[in-house]
Write a structure and sequence with these properties.
about 80 residues; mainly alpha; 2 helices; about 90% helix
Length: about 80
């Protein structure tokens, strides 16, 4: 069933927030992982390992946001538009 644009506006806004959030977390996770690698290369193994775990956690949250929230909402919006 085709809905009007005004009816889909909240869903589109939610889709935008999930997409930007997932992309932002991915960039932040990659930056933290790079920081961890540079820290380990400069000899601070403990802090580098901690940063590595934090970067992996951020990347995991980005993955979860993309797969659990963004992708189903994208399918829902596409079905509403078809």
């Amino acid at each position: 069933m085709r809905q009007s644009f005004v009816d889909l506006l909240p869903d589109l806004l939610e889709l935008l927030v999930f997409g930007i959030g997932s992309a932002g977390l991915s960039v932040a996770g990659a930056y933290i992982e790079r920081f961890a690698l540079l820290t380990v290369q400069h000899g601070d193994l403990g802090f580098g390992a901690w940063a590595l775990v934090m970067g992996a956690a951020v990347l995991y949250f980005a993955y979860l946001l993309g797969t659990d929230k963004f992708h189903p909402k994208l399918r829902e919006v596409r079905a509403a538009l078809a």
